[in-house]
Amino acid sequence: MRAFGDATTRRHGKFPCLWMQAGVVRKKYCPLFYDCTACQFDRALMHAVEENQRLRDQGQVVAGNRGRLVYWKDKLKERPPWKQPCIHHMKGQIQFRACTHRYVCSDCEFDQFFQDQFSVYAVMRPVDVLSVKGIDIPQGYYLHPGHVWLKIEADGSVRIGLDDFVRRVLGPMDKIEAPLMGKPVRQHEPAIRVIRGGKEATFASPVNGVVLDINPQLREKGQHLHHHPYATGWVLRAFPDNLRKDLPGLMIGSESQTFLNKEVDILYELIEETAGPLAADGGYLGDDIYGNLPELGWENLTRRFFMNP
After folding, report:
1. Fewer CB near the terminus (10 Å): N or C of the chain?
2. Is the pLDDT at 307 greater than 60, yes or no?
3. Weakest-pLDDT range from 17-21, 35-39, 139-143
4. Helix/strand/coil for 207
5. What is the mean pLDDT of the chain?
6. Is-contact 177 200, C-beta < 8 A?
């Protein structure tokens, strides 16, 4: 499997736009490594296609080049089935493979397999990581104030999980639960439930959207979060309703650093109030704060840091 965004996946380092590969536009190269959610060109063409359809529904004729615009997936569907390339091939991630689900990736077992394998690959080849007093957050990951991370996937979906602060504060979980496929999630409202030793806590969704799938390993093996919270420890994947509207409510980069720095300072204060200054190890948080200091109180910790009632 080739790494996403590796320049060797395209000749001369150019990444042909999906609209170009489908034959909708003549020449257009992608400068964003197929992050279509951030692409103004993609949004403009989508708007034009939707407007064309609206006019046709009203019985109007759309003339000219604009009238010939169709969604790139619909253009590909005009080809014979064996000539309809998988989206992962179009992005240079795999050798040729025909799409078997009419470009409905949420129904595709191979897409799920690829996403899982890519998560494992990310563990072996991690991206740059920001570290704040021992708490890690990968570059390019968004962070919700309830300590839930969000990563934008190549197909416009988002992968969601619990951050390293959760792992260190609450320790290993017995079980982690999320809504089933097709269920809606609302930004800032509970979506993830964790259980440890009879104690429960909930974590808010960072976006509005619909659940595409959940990490099956976490239902009975919550320990995956404890080892790789940003890779194999992901909790769910969702398709957002309006990602651009939701992102301002999240943090990224230096914003995440500032937020985590304040959270760690507050946690230090709570620890020192309970166990004295020796509770912190060399200025960095250890693992399983709650397990080592249960007198901090599960409810107190989850209310203060994880937006629990």
Report:
1. C
2. yes
3. 35-39
4. coil
5. 83
6. no
3-state SS assignment for residue 251: strand
Residue 227's pLDDT band (cuts 50, 70, 90) = low
Mean pLDDT of 175-198: 93
CB 73 within 8 A of CB 103: yes
Contact 186, 242 (CB under 8 A): no
Q: In sequence order, which residues have a C-beta less than 8 Å from that of residue 42 and are 6 or more positions away?
A: 18, 19, 36
Task: Inform me whether the pLDDT recorded for 120 exceeds 90.
Answer: no
Among 157-166, 168-177, 226-235, the least confident range:
226-235
Q: How far apart are the C-alpha atoms of 300 and 282, rounded to whole Å?
A: 24
Q: How many residues does the chain have?
A: 309
Global pTM reads 0.61
* Residues 143, 166: Cα–Cα separation, whole Å: 12
Question: Is the separation of the CB atoms in 177 and 309 below 8 Å?
Answer: no
Contact 279, 272 (CB under 8 A): yes
Alpha-carbon span 229 to 148, nearest angstrom: 10
Q: Is the pLDDT of residue 12 over 50?
A: no
**Region 183-202 average pLDDT:** 95
Output the six-digit token pair for 124.
């072996």
307 touches 204 (CB < 8 A): yes
The residue with greater pLDDT, 274 or 145, is 145
Cβ neighbours for 104, distance < 8 A, ≥ 6 positions apart: none
Determine contact, residues 147/264, Cβ cutoff 8 Å. no
Alpha helices in 68-155 (DSSP H): 72-76, 87-90, 109-124
Residue 84 CA to residue 98 CA, distance in Å, equals 5
What are the φ and ψ backbone dihedral angles of 292, each rounded to 5 degrees? -85, -25
Q: Are the C-beta atoms of residues 250 and 206 closer than 8 Å to each other? A: yes
Match 């204060």 to its residue by tokens.
Answer: 269
Closest C-alpha among 190, 261, 177 to residue 225: 177
